[in-house]
User: Fold this.
Amino acid sequence: MNIAKFAALILFLYLFSAIISYMIRITGIFAWINIFFLSLVIFAILFIIFIFILAIVYAIIKKPEIEEGNYSIDKIRGKEEMK
Amino acid sequence: MKYKITGDNLQIVTIELEPGEKVYAEAGSMVYMSPNIKMEAKARGGLLKAIGRKFAGETFFLTEFTPSGGKGFVGFAGNAPGTIMPLEIDSGKEFIVQKDAFLCAEDGVDLSIAFQKRLGAIFFGGEGFILERLSGKGMAFIHACGDFIEMELKEGESIKVDTGSVVGWEASVDYDIQRVKGIKTIFFGGEGLFLTTLRGPGKIILQSMTLHNLAMALAPFLPQQQTSGRSGILGTFLDETLGR
Assistant:
């Protein structure tokens, strides 16, 4: 993922939250809250929901695999060997 | 360029510079230098690159060190208990390192930002979206908390690592995440929902302790801030005078 895709993802989430906040405003509920502040609050909530859903999706996709084989510690080099 | 890494858990690297050689380092990382070293802060690579560096946890300006007259030496250290590691950067041997890991490098090494490629790795890999890329040719030195171990992974060979414990990896290494097996292990295993998986070919560097883990371990023992305490110059003066 490059910076453009990542920025697009965040912008999309914010745009979605801005639309929701606008819809809330026209209904008259929370009329005393600044629409920008409301959109930020909704964005924060949506972002947490997004991360939560993403975690579930990745928990399903990224299945744990146990790989068979012989593994020795010979290949691990600590500080002493690096010197 | 000769160098010497001294110390155990609070290491310092001293670099000997021949006439004509140059090193650059993160601003504020220099500890000592010989009197013939010329030090100059520069926004290396231009404004955009400098802004990019800021996002990668580095400083906007980097400081360049050059000897005048003859040989000179400069000592650099990190800002947390940890290890310094030399990396030989070459064409086809680029390194991706965690945010804020860069300490100093030879002039031929290019420091730029790199991005995590996978969405899952961005949010659950433990290293975040923005990383540092070391390319070009020459020696670079990285620093991170804890002790380091290094491994050379063969083609297709993999290792599972606790999220956040990867210091750096060669650009050829595949970085991904994998779910921990079993609900009981996820909730009570202490490693969380995901582990980082690194698949070769290439060299990887892991750390024994992350700065976050160190901070969490120390947090219960830190004194609480007193809201009624004195602050500012006068407060410091009074504290010093009264011996508190």
In short: Chain A touches chain B through 23 residues (CB under 8 Å).
